[in-house]
Amino acid sequence: MAQVPDKDATVSDAHAEFMKERFEVELEFLQCLANPWYINIIAQQGYFDQPEFVNYLKYLKYWQQPEYARFVVYPHALAFLDLLQNKTFRDEIKKIDEATRIHELQYHHWRWPNFKEESADESKTDTSS
């Protein structure tokens, strides 16, 4: 005799699959925010002028909680998510010059993570060599 599938189990499986896909899509989008050029493009396309999109950015702040943040590969995404809560930043990132400046700062941070301005100033004044 064939078994009748449990309707609750089928709904539960579908919900679990939906939640898994949602998790993956939100994580992928969040990590795109680590790229200043991506942020610049979506700013120029007017997404930050839409209240629904700004609310979505607020919603994504749950990724800053440790149980979710551990999945984030690019931590700058979380920093940019914070900055995107500010309307001034959202307006400024539309400008190519600002996106370029932020990209350069990000590059230098990655290139020289232990660089300290004091040590650079000290090396300029050191004439012992």
Q: What does this protein look like?
A:
The protein is mostly helical and about 130 residues long. Helices cover about 65% and strands about 0% of the residues. The protein is globular.
Give the total of beta strands: 0
Helix content: 55-70%
> Which sheet architecture does the biggest sheet show?
none
The H-and-E topology, N to C, reads as HHHHHHHH
Backbone structural class: mainly alpha
Number of helices: 8
Quote the beta fraction.
under 5%
User: What radius of gyration results from the CA coordinates?
Assistant: 22 Å
Distance between the termini: 91 Å
Q: What is the mean predicted local confidence, pLDDT? A: 85
Shape: globular
Question: Could you list some keywords that capture this structure?
Answer:
129 residues; mainly alpha; 67% helix; 0% strand; globular
Compact summary:
With 129 residues, the protein is mainly alpha-helical. Helix content is 67%, strand content 0%.
Task: Please specify the SSE layout and strand pairing.
Blueprint: H1 7-32, H2 36-44, H3 51-59, H4 66-69, H5 76-83, H6 87-92, H7 96-111, H8 117-125
